[in-house]
Amino acid sequence: MQAANLDLMDDSLHDLRAAARRAGAALLALALAVGSVAPASAQQPPAAKADSREASAEQRKRDALSKDEGIEVPKRSRIASLADAKRMESQAVAQYGQLLKQARAQGALAPPDYPPRQRLERIAQRLIPYTHRFSERSDEWKWEVNLLGSNQVNAFVMPGGKIAFYTGIIDRLRLTDDEIAMIMGHEMAHALLEHGRERVGQAKLAQIATIGASVFSQILGYGDLGGQLASGASQLTLLKFSRGDETEADLVGMDIAARAGYDPRAAVSLWQKMSALSQGQGAPPQFLSTHPAHATRIDTIREALPKVLPLYARARGVAPQALEPYASNWGEPIR
Ligand SMILES: [Zn+2]
User: Fold this and answer.
1) 288 CA from centroid of ligand 1 (Å)
2) What sign results for the dihedral spanned by CA atoms 93, 174, 216, 285?
3) I want to staple 322 with a disulfide (CB 3.0 to 4.6 A). Which of 17, 139, 262, 318 is the partner?
4) Distance from the CA of 222 to the center of ligand 1, in angstroms?
5) Is 187 an annotated catalytic residue?
6) How far apart are CA 249 and CA 265, in angstroms?
7) 183 secondary structure, DSSP code
8) Are 219 and 284 in contact (CB under 8 A)?
9) Residue 22, beta-bridge partner list
10) Confidence of residue 278 (pLDDT cuts 50, 70, 90)
11) Residue 238 burial by CB count (10 A; 0-12/13-18/19+): exposed, middle or buried?
12) What is the largest CA-CA distance in the chain?
């Protein structure tokens, strides 16, 4: 079993590396695009004149720290207005409420005292303090993470910080806490960077669908409630993010999770698991239909590790060079 898994992983890594070599130029362009965005601090007004020389030296030190550390804050979309963003968020919050109501009626909404739900909540509470750096507006949001019963390998975020994990993604990928934190950070990043706002144009806002037919299975006991798992869910949960958004969300998510003390190398094992699953079962996990993977994804994540591992080391209170390789419950430890 273990040997078969390893073979599968070796094959998928081999494929990924071959594809990475072929797409070397594209990767470079992508890395440049991500690396060249302006940090938010560059857009802030200069310090007031009254500041003493000492205070501005202190400020410079802080600026240097925030620029040098971790993943740079990507520039925000200028497509839509703040009013559009707020309207979209309130629509999303309402849709999320409907979704939970429907799931609860089907016995598919994990209650607050259900241990796997509590596990998600614990991880979310550790991550939330580190979201502010990427969107001050998010301070007004009420972050929420729920667990829905479904065999689908899926998780989603809606604008305004409303997240859901399906039991399928946790169970079928046997996710560790670090891997859950990578997915959660990734989803948080989509919301913080308002990728949904860019995907849904003004025109589409008016025609957002209501929640569709049964997509859930019961959390406690029973199996799937029906075969029609692929359909349904609301439009805002079915937003397909672009390749650029995906890279941005990977990197920002790793930054948030690393600051919260989760090992960012878990992003590598997560995508190795995802890749092995999609090759093993023929049909790609549902997660990939809204979060398209690309062949160079793991390479891009690995390239970003030197930026986020020091954050993780500091959160753990150890020197970066003292970190042990990351051992997931699957595959080889990751250095
Ligand atoms: Zn994504």
Assistant:
1) 8
2) positive
3) 318
4) 30
5) yes
6) 15
7) H
8) no
9) none
10) confident
11) middle
12) 68
Residue 22 pLDDT > 90: no
Q: Are 156 and 291 in contact (CB under 8 A)?
A: no
- Return d(Cα 146, Cα 160) in angstroms, integer: 14
Distance 294 CA to ligand 1 centre (A): 11
Sheet of 162-166, strand order:
144-148, 162-166, 155-158
Q: Which of 298, 277, 193, 272 is nearest to 239 (CA)?
A: 193
CA of 153 to the centre of ligand 1 (A): 13
72, 187, 198, 246: which is the annotated catalytic residue? Answer: 187
User: CA 259 to CA 257: how far, in whole Å?
Assistant: 5
Residue 59, φ and ψ in degrees, nearest 5 = -65, -45
Half-sphere exposure of 104 (CA within 13 A, CB side): 9
Q: Is 50 helix (H, G, I), strand (E, B) or coil?
A: coil
Q: Give the 3-state secondary structure of residue 169.
A: helix
DSSP string spanning 268-324? Answer: HHHHHHHHHHHHHHSSPPHHHHHS---TTHHHHHHHHHHHHHHHHHHHHTS-GGGPP
User: Averaging pLDDT over each range in 22-26, 70-74, 82-86, which range is the top one?
Assistant: 70-74
Q: How far is CA 58 from CA 34, 38, 198, in A?
A: 28, 22, 37
Which DSSP helix (H) or strand (E) runs through 162? strand 162-166
For ligand 1, the distance from its centroid to the CA atom of residue 46, given in whole angstroms, is 34
pLDDT of amino acid 102: 83
Residue with tokens 């995508």: 271
Tokens at 110, concatenated: 């994990």
Q: Report in angstroms the alpha-carbon separations of 119 from 66, 116, 247.
A: 30, 5, 26
Q: What are phi and psi of 109, to 5 degrees?
A: -100, 120
Distance 296 CA to ligand 1 centre (A): 15
Exposed, middle or buried by CB within 10 Å (0-12, 13-18, 19+), for 136? Answer: exposed
Q: Is the pTM of this model over 0.85?
A: no
Mean pLDDT of the region 37-41: 36
Helix (H, G, I), strand (E, B) or coil at 166: strand
Question: 246 with 114: CB under 8 angstroms?
Answer: no
